[in-house]
Amino acid sequence: MHDVVPEPVAELAKRRREPVVVQTVRSATGATIAYAAAVWLLGSKPPPLLAPLTALLVVQVTLYATLTSGVRRVNAVVAGVLIAVGFSAWVGLTWWSLGLLIISALVTGHLVRVGEFVPEVAISAMLVLGVTHATDLALTRVLETLVGAGVGLLFNIVFVPPVWVEDAGESIEDLAKRMSALLLELGEELGGHTPVEEATARVEEARRLDHDISEVDEALTRAEESVRFNPRVKEGLLSRIVLRTGLDTLEICAVILRVTTRSLADLARARTEEALFPPDVSAALRELFINMAGAVQSFSVLITDQVSANAEDAETFLLTELSAARMSREHVARLLLEKVQEHPRQWQLHGALLAEVDRFLDELDVEKRSTRLAEELDRYSREQRARHPRLDKAKRRVRRYRRRRGGGQSRRQALTKQDVDAA
């Protein structure tokens, strides 16, 4: 008798690694610890609620986001408290001073570059200005903020957030599967008469890929942040660049695929009483689209697989699919040329379809992918050198010193060998 897992339990187990679930559990835990720490350090009267609030905002789904948001959060609250102390000492709380306080706090928030926490500057300033003993409360609020931010930072350092590279890879593979499925559907529909409504529906399906790409881009951004400053990741830069360049390629392919569906829809409008293509051409196009679909899936496996053996297999499959697709393309081109000479209507759409296939296959080319990776690595290196010129200069000095030392050792080794030979 096989054990049957209830569907709700299986769904819960499936969703336990989703970013929303992970973020909810981590934020609640971090805020609770921050409140307990603030009560222990500052007392419970009044309740130090700013500490869990700060920790709630500081504890993010990635360590990089935690570090950056923690610094901005502390800056926002401290800036608001200082502004409130100044207003309380000079003008107090009136209707016009409140308006002037809000304007000053928002402007200050932009000046100190607290990002999305600009409203928090005004909120902190108003809360402090609204009490009688502003100076005492100001110090308490600053301490609560520091406790909450410190707990949030330590929480993410001790309990390192998960790495979301695998989830981003799965999102890219799902996107490639949807593109592949659309290509297969297009190939199946070329064998007979295609109604205009059906061809238009394929155009809308291709347009929905833009929304899918936006979701994948969000997942990839989260994955890129998860490997930054993460001690569990050794080759974070390479993973980020491989996935990012791969998504860029798929995004271009999605645009080409959308243009392809538009060309087929235009053909359907022009040929309402007949098939889009003759039987031999439609069979060749079906084989071409099948090869293109296989190439897209092989490309997604190539850029997402972290195991070198599987990556090599995926590259072999990709090369095979691209080679077969190019051969199919040449066969389709010859057939279309013959049909155009016999039946010259809408020949420009035939040429557009072939050009779109060429661009699609060119984007998936293995050599082009290698060139893009090299260009991205060079660009990143240039940006790092421009951003940290002193560090780059120190690294170059160390490399020159090692080369000189290595050269001197080689010369000494050569001299020693000569002495041995002479002896």
Structure keywords:
423 residues; mainly alpha; 15 helices; elongated
Give a nutshell description of this structure.
The protein has 15 helices and no strands.
Question: What do you see in this structure?
Answer:
- The chain is mostly helical and 423 residues long.
- It has 15 helices and no strands.
- Helix 4 (63-90) runs parallel beside helix 6 (118-129), helix 8 runs parallel beside helix 10 (236-270) and helix 9 packs antiparallel against helix 10 (236-270).
Helix content: over 70%
What does the overall shape look like? elongated
**Measured distance between first and last alpha carbons:** 84 Å
Stretches where pLDDT is under 50 for at least 5 consecutive residues are: 1-5, 408-423
Major sheet size, sense and barrel closure: none
Structural topology:
Layout: H1 7-15, H2 19-42, H3 50-58, H4 63-90, H5 95-111, H6 118-129, H7 134-158, H8 165-189, H9 196-227, H10 236-270, H11 279-304, H12 308-342, H13 347-363, H14 366-387, H15 389-422
Helix pairs in contact: 2-3, 2-7, 3-4, 3-7, 4-5, 4-6, 4-7, 5-6, 8-9, 8-10, 8-11, 9-10, 10-11, 10-13, 10-14, 11-12, 12-13, 14-15
